[in-house]
Amino acid sequence: DVKVTQSSRYLVKRTGEKVFLECVQDMDHENMFWYRQDPGLGLRLIYFSYDVKMKEKGDIPEGYSVSREKKERFSLILESASTNQTSMYLCASSLSPANEQYFGPGTRLTVT
Amino acid sequence: QKEVEQNSGPLSVPEGAIASLNCTYSDRVSQSFFWYRQYSGKSPELIMSIYSNGDKEDGRFTAQLNKASQYVSLLIRDSQPSDSATYLCADFNTDKLIFGTGTRLQVFP
User: Fold this and answer.
1) Across the interface, do A100 and B101 touch by the CB < 8 Å criterion?
2) How confident is the model over A82-112, as pLDDT tens digits?
3) Which residues of A touch chain B, with CB atoms under 8 Å apart?
């Protein structure tokens, strides 16, 4: 079974803090993705990566950056957290871009 | 703007009935389609993928794809209260999955 894990289930941070969200997958997948999910807006793609040290902007990259130093690990960084980044953050991985994606449990981030 | 459209619901069905969930997509070049189930407060869980026109069955679930009409549907037979969740449709387009906003299904005893 594919397993995608995320570093925290719940996180509370203050405005202006730098926030790191970690995601690890154990299936040797090439592709990894970061989404945020908000009520009424669905899943929105922040960044994705098709290979180590490679990253591509998704639909809403502003205010975020990512790092992929190892194949199994994909990190999302909020450079200076703001209240409008309060959301559920979901990491996913897939074998190839057209294949099904498997999601981690999510991190519910609250920025106060 | 490439889009995947779903009725937000809720779709309410009695236990034991067939639940029918529908999804339309805007771009004819879409090749792969996926259905996910998401319980409240949890992450999406893959139910089925479908790539070719026609039906694909897996247990109580049947996915149907009609590329000419650009719609995908998911049928859940013998619906159970444990099927109550939001169902997300997604299609692969160009280089990423495009998700619908989901249909909430309620199965009442």
Assistant:
1) no
2) 999 999 999 999 998 888 999 999 999 999 9
3) 33, 40-43, 45, 48, 56, 58, 90, 97-106
**Residue B35 C-beta-side C-alpha neighbours within 13 Å:** 27
Chain B residues within an 8 Å CB radius of A103: 43-45
Whether B36 and B23 have beta carbons less than 8 Å apart is answered as no
Mutating which of B43, B49, B89, B93 best tests the A interface, going by the most A Cβ atoms within 10 A?
A: B43
Rounded-to-integer distance, Cα A43 and Cα A89, Å: 9
Q: Which residues of chain A have pLDDT under 70?
A: 1-2
Token pair 């013998």: residue:
B78
Cβ contact, residue pair B42, A97, below 8 Å = no
State which H helix or E strand residue A16 sits in.
none
CA distance B36 to B17: 20
CB atoms A100 and B46 under 8 Å:
yes
The count of other CB atoms within 10 Å of the CB of residue B75 is 17
Is the CB of A42 less than 8 angstroms away from the CB of B46?
A: no
Task: Report how far apart, in Å, the C-alpha atoms of B10 and of each of A32, B16, B102 are.
Answer: 31, 17, 10
